[in-house]
Amino acid sequence: MTADQDWVVARLARVQGVRHAIVCTVDGMLKARSADTGRDEADRLAARCSGLLSLARDQAGEFGTGAKALHQLMVGHEGGYLFVRGAAARSCLAVVTGPVINAALVAQEMQATVLKLGEQLATPARGSG
Asked: Roadblock/LAMTOR2 domain spans which residues (predicted)?
């Protein structure tokens, strides 16, 4: 996926209350961003998400089942929320919202986007002949 594939987060960015949506690698490299998210802003968000995911996975490993499996991370802050969840191929999806949102709808659209990413990044099976 490249920046030319920003369309992946376009539907998610239209959810009421969503201000920014990005896809990045787990080590903080930007892969896609919503139209209203500037490149510098998206790069900073990707770097933050990388650090937050690392901390959250350590937390899940120690106090969860030990598998470091992380479903979703939500940070509430003055002025809104940050949602981060794993996506396909060592990637994550991050959404920044305003303060008034339908969290269930944001989570639902994030799930739909993750499924779309999985289809986009999946390697097709090789033919038998």
From this structure: 6-97
